[in-house]
Amino acid sequence: MKVKNKAWGGRFKNAQSKQFLEYGASVGFDQKLAFFDVAQNTAHTLALAKAKIISRAECLKITKGLEGILRELAEGRFVFSADDEDVHMNIERRLREKIGPVAGKLHTGRSRNDQVATDTRLYVRDACRKITGLLRGLRTAFVFQAEKTVDGFMPGYTHLQQAQPIRIAHWFLAYHEMFLRDEARFLSTEKSADVMPLGSGALAGNNFGIDRRFTADLLGFSTLSQNSIDGVSDRDFASEFCFAVSTLFVHLSRLAEDLIIYSSSEFGSVVLPDALCTGSSIMPQKKNPDLLELFRGKAGRTTGNLVNLLVLQKGLPLAYNKDMQEDKIPLFDSAEQALSSLPLAVELVKGIKFNEKILAKRLRNGYLTAVDLADFLVLKGMPFRSAHHLVGEIVSECEGGGIPLAEIKLDALRKKSALFDASVKSYLDPTLSPDRKKGDGSTARGEVLKQIKRLKKALRAK
Prior knowledge:
Blueprint: E1 2-3, E2 16-17, H1 18-24, H2 27-30, H3 34-50, H4 56-74, H5 87-99, H6 112-148, E3 153-158, E4 161-167, H7 168-193, E5 195-196, H8 212-219, E6 223-224, H9 228-233, H10 236-262, E7 270-271, H11 290-313, H12 328-351, E8 353-354, H13 356-365, H14 370-379, H15 384-401, H16 410-416, H17 445-461
Parallel strand pairs: 5-6
Antiparallel strand pairs: 1-2, 3-4, 7-8
Helix pairs in contact: 3-4, 3-8, 4-5, 6-7, 6-12, 6-17, 7-10, 10-11, 10-12, 11-12, 14-15
């Protein structure tokens, strides 16, 4: 079956295959740009009137028609059709139905190439703003939890082995730093997207002297693209966005992995909120951390979106190519994953509870103060490498005898070195270890409180 009467059909003697046109239609996914397309159309109409390309009456007729389409979109009454290929042609078709042939003047001085590039930038800019708002909420939740747990202690881990005692608050603030960097990435991406390509035409610019700065101001763009070829073919901002989302999910995945481990029966140091867990269809005792596992899974999904977008662009000649239609699928999916996941992440962080009784027992039963013991000897004048070796021997003997380091007797220590005296007892207490840490960013109480104060002030200032 052949199809005629396309907007671009004048060039062709023969009609296109219906199957081919259906294959190339993008309205099934690019309709997400509809609100942005109406906003762009309205700004472009006003710019055409300013350049006296359309009359004031025509401008009023077109803008009123676009207002009607906006209402239809908002109320869910707009009917998209694959026959019109993409969101842009669907809106133009509906405008023509509403106001007649004058709708055909709307596309003057514009190509779908610069039109879709502008819509996509508007979409990314809007998504970045929404995501940074959600990240601010997530960071607030981490700071709130840190403030509650300043005087709680837990083992810190390296290589998933107990390493040194830290404050629970310090653990929360570590994740806060990750998501603070995520927020900075989205703010940077928003700036990258804040460049208006409209007026670039297909690739060479337009013949009508349209005031691009006027249009940019109407759409809230800070700057204009400076090369019309680059204006229609640049998708760096989309790549940056997908990178920012994939990194965000790597951080959510790391948080998820920690909490999955800590909430397991073997660890039992964290209790997850019931509202964000599920049960088993066969095992009545199970409390499964499904949300956390989904976060881990979506890290793979969003990283795949980034790779998809990068590979899509790597061999494209200038300027616009139909391949670039495929950029919307990974872009939209990454945005949707971030926007749907972050509110749940906020709820999760607010609902986390550390089991401080279990943690207190675990702190005393291990060898977490081994570094403190070595540092004690260093302060007495022993070289660190010698102290490290000696404490390693002590830990080995304690393990063999089933004795926690916190319970070793002074006499046993003095057999190893005469440098040990009664003051060593405080160096064996895991709850005193964090406050011996010096310097900005450490797990000492004063440093943690200083961090919380600084972060609360910054969050209030936003």
